[in-house]
Amino acid sequence: MSRIPLLLMLLMAGNTWAQSLEPAPAANSHARSLAATCFTCHGTDGRSVGGVPPSLAGQNRDYLLKQLQEFRDGKRPATIMHQHAKGYTDEQLKLIADYFAAVLPGQAAAAPKVK
Ligand code: HEC
To answer: Which of 33, 34, 48, 65 is the most exposed place for a label (fewest CB within 10 A)?
Structure first.
């Protein structure tokens, strides 16, 4: 049997799966990779559970950028954000701010059930 049909089926299945996911906002995958480090606390794509810490999805881009620069530079008091904003260039913070500003605010991803 030829392997091509199987390969095609796999490709088609992968494609269907990809289409069932929400489309990524108008940002490149590099920006999403940078932003993904924030998802643990701020929720997937910046939609946080219960708003703590604040959701980043759909926030004003300039506001986000300013907060990130102030955390990084130690100008805005924080418990933890100083650590998370450190080490990024202005260019990277812009990509991150662009990314979250482009995400539509919405429901946080459901937390997994635990035993
Ligand atoms: C370990 C958890 C954690 C991670 C990871 C994290 N944050 Fe935060 N973030 C917080 C907390 C907590 C606050 C509230 C300020 C504080 O106490 O540090 C906050 C506040 C913020 C704010 C201010 C929100 C507002 O409405 O004023 C922004 C912007 C922000 N974070 C962006 C980011 C970005 C971008 C990343 C990824 C590079 C990130 N955070 C990663 C926990 C986190």
So the answer is: 33
